[in-house]
Amino acid sequence: MRLSRAFLPTLKETPADAQIASHRLMLRAGMVRQTSAGIYAWLPLGWRVLQKVEQIVREEQDRAGAQEILMPTIQTADLWRQSGRYDAYGPEMLRLKDRHDREMLYGPTNEEMVTDIFRTYAKSYRDLPRNLYHIQWKFRDEVRPRFGVMRGREFLMKDAYSFDLDYAGAQRSYRQMFVAYLRTFARMGLKAIPMQADTGPIGGNLSHEFLILAETGESQVYLHRDLLDFDVLGQAPDYEGDLSPIVDFWTSRYAATDEKHDEAAWNAIPAERQVSARGIEIGHIFYFGTKYSASMGLQVQGPDGKPVAPEMGSYGIGVSRLVGAIIEANHDEAGIKWPEAVAPFRLAVLNLKQGDAATDALCDKLYAAFEADAVYDDRPERAGVKFADADLMGYPWQAIVGPRGAAAGKVELKRRATGEREELSLEDAIARIR
Ligand code: ATP
Ligand code: MG
Ligand code: MG
Ligand code: MG
């Protein structure tokens, strides 16, 4: 992407109403534009990050055995009357009417719809277990939309739904998602901790929230320090095998949000291992048994010929919230420091002297080597402006090329995360970034 032709706008002033760093930086870096309260347009830089986050979520869901579908955003009220949630859900639900005066709604979640789809086709215990997910926009009319995309009204969520024959199967599905979540967040460079949590309006009796620690988090959390030192990606899990050891490790150390906080269990932890902090909820998994299958008449024929209501769970990830959460965890005064896996572009080539033949030639070669994953700052701007913008946008690598270095065939390579700089030949620079 040549910056001279790209739509990658920045804001000079820090927007006054943005209270936290990620919100400020997303606005300043031109990632999103609020179009009305809690509703955002994603501009090219933000959209690329959102897609990278989404793709990691997708890959880990697929790996864990879930299958992707796409359900619509608009649902009929009838489905929600069947589960009894139409009235119970309250003012967070955006309710609409079509031209025939039929009651519709913009989905805040999809338990009812997926149960309806599944009951149409699943007839026998052989149709179980299954896990279906989609990545789709949700709408919740939050009382206080704030912190940018972290608490939007329209937001992108991955939601998966598992169907099992019995309790043991449902626990297995739950563990698969538990482990998939650990991996998903770790791949984005986040330290997400599963914590005992309330089930809220989804209902049910077993649930974990995944949170990252951040001063600006909206939840108060309590956890055992051991959980912060565990290497999640060290070995690939066998999703067909027994995942209990992984889940047991995490659940054997204390970690709870304040709704579930248990003073006695907390006090049993040595004081120097206690961590009490603020956290951001980025994912949430629930087991709720037959709550929806029973109320909505989903039944399959069991192995003994008798009808059974499948045991279900649901599993959400805040895909758009993650973009903000990743920035909360990776920024400094100058801007964003993207982890490589979700960076909008991995490399920025900064040409400090347009029109100098050696400088232009070196920049062209570097840019050509990474074109799809690089921005080329070929704007007629001062060096200081280019440095500041590259730091703000947070590309993991900056290749700085000026006439003095170019004459000697050298590139200055800067690592955004650490500030380290090196002078390298073109070939070495390319090899380093690859
Ligand atoms: P919160 O406690 O932050 O209101 P929630 O518990 O209501 O979230 P869930 O129903 O568990 O949310 O939804 C699954 C995930 O969707 C959450 O873990 C979060 O990452 C994301 N999410 C929920 N509400 C929002 C929102 N208003 N804006 C962005 N992401 C959201
Ligand atoms: Mg909520
Ligand atoms: Mg919550
Ligand atoms: Mg939740």
TrEMBL record:
Cross-referenced InterPro entries: aa-tRNA-synt_IIb, aa-tRNA-synth_II, aa-tRNA-synth_II/BPL/LPL, Anticodon-bd, Anticodon-bd_dom_sf, Pro-tRNA-ligase_IIa, Pro-tRNA-synth_IIa_bac-type, Pro-tRNA_synthetase
HAMAP family, per the entry: Pro_tRNA_synth_type2
MF term (GO), any: proline-tRNA ligase activity
Similarity comment: Belongs to the class-II aminoacyl-tRNA synthetase family. ProS type 2 subfamily.
Gene that encodes it: proS
Ranges annotated as spanning the membrane: none
Organism field: Belnapia mucosa
Official protein name in the record: Proline--tRNA ligase
UniProtKB keywords: Aminoacyl-tRNA synthetase, ATP-binding, Cytoplasm, Ligase, Nucleotide-binding, Protein biosynthesis
